[in-house]
Amino acid sequence: MMQPLRLSVNGRAHQLLVDPVASLLSVLRDDLQLWGTKEGCGTGYCGACTVLVDGDPVNACLLFAVDADQREVTTIEGLAPEKEDLHPLQAAFVARSGLQCGYCTPGVIMSAAALLAENPAPSSDDVRRGLAGNICRCTGYQSIVESVLDAAEQLRKQGRAGETPGRRGRIRSRA
Amino acid sequence: MLYFEPNFVDEALVLLDRFGDGARPLAGGTRLGFRLRDARPDGATALINLKRIAEMQSVARSGALLRIGALVTANQLATHPVVREHAGVLADAARSLGARQLRSVATLGGNICSGDPLSDLTTALLACDARCEITTLQEGPVQVALDLLVGKAPPVLASGELLTAVEIPLVPGTRSSYQKMSTRRAFEFALVAVAASARFRGAEISEARIALAGAGTAPKRARAAESVLAGKQLDSDTITAAARCAADSDAQPLEDRRASKEYRRHLVAVLTARALRSLAPANESATGK
Amino acid sequence: MPQLIGSQQPRADATEKVRGSALYTADVRLDNALHALVLRSPHPMAKIRSIDTGKAAALPGVAAIVYSGNVPDKFLDFGIKDQQLFPTTYVRYMGEPVAAIAAETQAQARAAADAIQIVYEPLQSVLNVDEALADNAPLVHPDWQTYKKSESRVLRGNLCGHNHIRQGDVDAALARSDVVVESSFEFSSGIPGYIEPRAAVARREPNGGLTVWCGSQNPYGNREELADFFDLPVENVRFINQYVGGAFGGKILMAAEWYAAALALRCDRPVRLVWSRHEDGLNVFPRHGGKAVFRSGAAADGTLLAMRASFVFDTGAYIGYGAGTALIATMIAAAPYRIPNTDLQARLVYTNKQVAGSVRAPGGPQATFAKEMHIDEIAHALGMDPLELRLKNVWRDGDSSPTGQVLSSVSARETLERAARAIGWGKPLEKNQGRGLSCSWWFSSCGRSEAKVSVQRDGSVDVESGNPEVGTGSAAGGLPILVAQALGVKLSDIRLTLADTATNTYDGGVGGSASTFSAGQAVEAAALDVRRQLLEQAEHTLEARSEDIELRDGRAVVRGAPDHSVTLGELAGAAGGSIAGSGQAREFSDPEFDAELVQSHDFPSWMAPSFTTTAAVVEVDPETGRVRVTKMATAQDVGFAINPTGVIGQIEGGAVQGLGYALSEELEFDRGGIVNTGLGDYLLPTAVDAPPIESIVVESPSQEGPHGIKGVGEPPVTTPAGAIGNAIRAAVGAAPHTVPMTPERVWRALREISAH
Prior knowledge:
The complex is a heterotrimer of chains A (175), B (289) and C (756).
Chain A: E1 3-9, E2 12-18, H1 24-31, E3 50-53, E4 56-59, E5 72-74, H2 88-95, H3 105-118, H4 124-130, H5 142-157
Parallel strand pairs in A: 1-5
Antiparallel strand pairs in A: 1-2, 3-4, 3-5
Chain B: E1 2-4, H1 9-19, E2 23-26, H2 32-37, E3 46-49, E4 59-62, E5 65-69, H3 74-79, H4 81-86, H5 88-96, H6 100-105, H7 108-113, H8 120-126, E6 131-136, E7 140-145, H9 146-151, E8 162-169, E9 175-181, E10 192-201, E11 204-213, E12 220-221, H10 223-229, H11 236-250, H12 261-279, E13 287-288
Parallel strand pairs in B: 1-3, 2-3, 9-13
Antiparallel strand pairs in B: 4-5, 5-8, 6-7, 6-8, 9-10, 10-11, 11-12
Helix pairs in contact in B: 5-8, 10-11, 11-12
Chain C: H1 14-19, E1 34-40, E2 46-52, H2 54-57, E3 62-67, E4 75-76, E5 83-84, E6 90-91, E7 97-103, H3 106-115, E8 117-122, H4 129-133, E9 159-167, H5 170-175, E10 179-187, E11 199-204, E12 210-214, H6 219-229, E13 237-241, H7 256-264, E14 271-274, H8 277-282, E15 289-298, E16 304-316, H9 323-333, E17 341-350, H10 364-382, H11 386-393, H12 412-422, E18 433-442, E19 450-456, E20 461-465, H13 474-487, E21 494-498, H14 515-542, E22 549-552, E23 555-558, E24 561-567, H15 568-574, E25 578-584, E26 598-599, E27 610-620, E28 627-637, H16 644-663, E29 669-670, E30 673-674, E31 693-698, H17 715-718, H18 720-732, E32 738-739, H19 743-754
Parallel strand pairs in C: 1-14, 10-32, 12-13, 16-17, 20-21, 28-31
Antiparallel strand pairs in C: 1-7, 2-6, 2-8, 3-7, 4-5, 9-17, 9-26, 10-15, 11-12, 11-14, 15-16, 18-27, 19-20, 19-25, 22-23, 23-24, 27-28, 29-30
Helix pairs in contact in C: 9-10, 10-18, 13-14, 14-15, 16-18
């Protein structure tokens, strides 16, 4: 029995019919062709599928798609505001080489975006704790931490400390 | 399989009653998802998504009682100022659960009802003298001590039952601590965890509650250790005695691929001692990692 | 124009990856693709009595089923021809693929899998090296005597490799040693740990050939193997590599590619096989587990006199790429120390388990952990500082290795000194804190590699290489730097096409610390070919001699006359639209060695060897045994850092992989089947576990490598475990001799010493 789902993804409203047991990850990738969000483990243990739902970081592989109804979902494709080519986090990861194979990267960046919204001036330990749910096998995390700290500084300089990441949509959040 | 989104507890109860064993209440869904998405059918006839029920999502303090809705998430527990102030062990346990992404989604009720033998939240709640509000269509809300709920064999809830809230009595001057040990330093189920909570009368303990995870098939109270502490001052002799008691009498640890029972028993002693040491006056509530 | 080689530059693929627009194999969506599923053996060892796919094939939605009965029964050649695509006679490990199905939906594929009727006769299995080597042990390969193999390989029952390095007289030297130390070690098995599970999409083409989309470390080699197996002309098989979400040696052997291709050949629609983490784990090629015993003697002044080392490695049910582990272990056992009397051997053993592979530095972490812990034990027995003992015995230029290879550009001493200094060696520490060192060496490789470079009319530069970008940055980072340097263009002018075999630029693949050596050479040669042609054209256009012309900022400029210039695009236009060049890697022969000193050894000398030392500081909680690594410093000799960003990335990533190997990563088996296939119970280090890492790039150029480089990718994962183990012992007086050194193992090691 298919279920209607109305949600905003990266600022765009969508109306879909979904299987009620479908994960948000499968809807993002299969129904909306947003392939930036990756499946690394499918069980919530690697964080590669991290997206923001009303600003909260979640594992899209665990969240039921129906639980995103009337909410704002932000994926890596929607992190940068419309007028910006790359969000400061994305720019920092490029400049600092905070990535190698790139598979964990969208999830890491989305987690970091949530972290910086809650804590605009984190220490490196804060960053490590905040990203504990994102497993990276390539980088050893050092360059990731440096990238996030750089981005935090950039955001503060731009007067964007604590801003909610992602594009705003038309659907009011459930809360 | 049908799908429902009840807006009130009453509606949910009608559905649970109607579908009986085929009902699948959905809270965070972190475990239910796998069962339902597996190709093999498991007899589910109705998925009942509880998360539109506002009355199950609040944290409220009224007088000497802290009432936490069953759908409150681990992240909310970890960050809520009232929980942090009055039930620090629960906030600390919630903060140690999984990782940030999981905490956004995992709920108090879902965690208790999953019967997870290493549940951080259940362990902490046992040390908080928590009572669960279980509601059915026929009987309305009933208070059940959490100890009774986790002490029996799974499933935690019978068909038709809904865990709607958890209540914790608040007693001024209570100090608490959560100590958790795992192989890596984050994002792992406990090998052993200890939650301790104590009320003091002057320098003496008037009541202590110690709960253990990883010391049996489910989180449990360390009653022998608690009795060692009653009426005593928290000095190094009492702490050592209580820790030994918890390890030797209360703990019945399992042996599995992650750890031997001998090591788990040892960890019970170590973590109990650490939890108690941090309760001594002039120490803040602390989480070990 | 600033020097690009040797400077830190962003990677060519970074922007796509941070945007989420970089495509990996699971993102490749062909219309109408069928779903594939692999059916696996439920037994660790069994005879296959019969396979009947009739009922399954008739089920709704089933497009094709492949199994031993309808694919070539050829044996794959990994030095010993012991493996078929699907087994015909025996299954040899729990989880071994026995058939594959393509159907409209996953559910239909699963129903078909359930309906395939296979009658097994379970047989006795061997599940560890002791069982495998016991007298009258059940055989993993009952037919081993019929197998073809290359001459140097040892094959006898469950023994599928045995190499020996011997020099001098170990027993006599031990007899006259002032101290003799014996140590035993055990190594658990582990996974490569790539975050992207394996996947492949395959489509049969009208000419009967195949197109395969995948994320392989070795697409050209895979393509040849696939074409050969299915008797297809190589030119009709095309591999299009996508971005690879980490590989670490686990994506060299084909897996998903085999099954997708085999099915696609029987279907008229594309076949898509995307494994879940669990499925990937059932078919993973893990790092070898095993054991080692070391016995060494030294004089009272710290001179090492003799070493006897014996390794046994569990290679699982088939040889695959397992041989290297045993060969490399004996090459590492006594290195990099002057030990005149050595007796080093390693055996490789079949068991009824997953096929062990060539995970990043095969044999390296195992052998380095063992020997470096052993070296510290010798220091302890002598009452000598562990750094001092190492410095006293470490190789110098002109020394010979145990196989008689004369060594040059030996930087081991420098790596030891710099790493030790970086962690404050010798300064006081708090209780339960300790410092440890581990020093080792590794080889460089150079395989066949070809490249094409061309400049277009619009000034853009196309670079085609067969080297895949699996994450390390050797391709997306290093190759553009070489081209930009040679042609004087900006990195952003370069368009890189990697690992699409349609470009016909063969490359031997990523692995063995070879990429920059091979692909770097080829790409640079191609770029220099284009440079020569650009200058020739510029001579005409600018009416100047090429010696007076510079290429910089995308232009050809007459030196001293900055207005007298022309863009590279204009030169290309004048030459007919584009200027193209090609290049290839020069292959190298391995250094000389003394054949008298080795027996059955296929890897007895190492080209352009590098040296690496990791130094670690730990804090041990003696009550729980949990170890916190508070700092790691790795000094690695990279010869010359063409791409420092890439080099540092390898060092940092290798350090944390080594940390995981040291403290938490362990595969668990039940009847030979892997139990912890998920990432919740296989413990990769998190950001909280990883310490700050200091990377010390040492440059002691090689003779062979382009710009003097040495291989970079593997060494940094070999040394951390030994450093951490030694630091634990320094902190609390004992350390486990089993990796991973979990808290429980540390606790038990401490209990043992307090019991005495």
